[in-house]
Design goal:
By secondary structure, the chain is mainly beta. The chain folds into 2 domains: about 10-100 and about 195-275, Pnp Oxidase, Chain A (Roll), CATH 2.30.110; about 105-190, no CATH class. Helices cover about 5% and strands about 50% of the residues. The chain has 2 helices and 16 strands. It has helices at about 90-95, 160-165, and strands at about 10-25, 40-60, 70-85, 100, 110-115, 120-125, 130-135, 150, 155-160, 180-185, 190-195, 200-210, 220-230, 235-240, 240-250, 270-275. Strands 1-2-3-15-13-12 form a 6-stranded antiparallel barrel. The N and C termini lie close together (about 5 Å).
């Protein structure tokens, strides 16, 4: 197991370069686990960072018996995970959202209304499989692909009025103001996450795998008793063409964790870990 220590003012962090999976379960308001653990995705790296805040103060005695007291004000931990895969069903928990699925277009073309401006892209929130026509709102004018517009993966790019004229367009689309057009075609099956529409879930996490640092292949696992993700710390990165998700969560104390372990030590209310090395 490769452990890196980073000491600051009352702070330390350590982490693993790993090969394993992240699992999560949902907890209720009382801190009780109400679901089985489900796989979230494939982990590339894990880091736990700790912050202990203290205050130094002079004792009331003076002279040679005087002492300086150090009182702990608070302690906290932050968990940062880097995943190379994640399921949309699980990401909704991080993004405080709801998941919905739109079926793929069948044999008959689907028609959607899109408000467009010229000289730029106009997204229509669907993933395109094939577009057969773009018409005016009354259906009387059929605009020409390559002269009035081009279709991207999920948007219609409308050329400026001058470009449309230069390209030989018979009609000018959205010449002076926005215009509503009817886009007909076939669209892919699509999963959507409506973010920030629900309250954040409290989770219990565990991950297991092997350290991939150097030649070591030490198995390990870590269990976080209580954590809450912050959607503002959700990032989508790119690494040599592969999607990468960086998630950050606050590790919380779980008052339901009580008692002592096999060695007679008090159970941590935050987390515990195990490894062969």
């Amino acid at each position: 197991m490769a452990i890196n220590y980073n000491y600051g003012a009352d702070k330390q962090a350590f982490g693993w370069k790993t090969n394993g999976a992240l699992h999560y379960a949902i907890k209720d308001a009382n801190g009780n686990r109400i679901t089985a653990f489900k796989s979230w995705g494939y982990i590339q790296a894990v880091q736990l960072a700790f912050d202990v805040q203290t205050i130094e103060q002079q004792a009331s005695l003076f002279g040679p018996l005087s002492e300086v007291d150090s009182d702990e004000l608070s302690r906290s931990a932050t968990l940062t995970l880097t995943l190379t895969s994640a399921q949309a069903e699980n990401l909704k928990t991080v993004l405080m959202g709801e998941l919905n699925t739109i079926a793929a277009t069948g044999a008959v073309d689907e028609v959607i209304n899109v408000e467009v401006f010229s000289d730029g892209s106009n997204p229509f929130n669907r993933i395109v499989k094939e577009i057969t026509s773009v018409k005016s709102s009354d259906g009387l004018i059929t605009y020409e692909e390559g002269k009035n517009y081009v279709i991207t993966q999920s948007a219609i790019y409308v050329f400026s009025a001058a470009e449309q004229t230069e390209k030989g367009a018979l009609e000018i689309l959205a010449e002076t103001a926005k215009e509503t057009v009817k886009v007909a075609g076939k669209f892919e099956k699509q999963m959507n996450i409506e973010g920030f529409t629900t309250s954040g879930a409290t989770l219990e996490l565990y991950f297991e795998g092997q350290s991939t640092a150097k030649s070591q292949k030490a198995p390990f696992f870590v269990r976080i008793h209580k954590a809450k993700f912050n959607p503002t710390n959700f990032d989508i990165l790119s690494d040599q063409g592969y999607g990468q998700f960086s998630l950050s969560a606050k590790v919380l104390a779980d008052a339901n964790v009580q008692g002592v372990n096999e060695a007679g030590q008090q159970y941590s209310q935050f987390f515990f870990m195990g490894t062969t090395r």
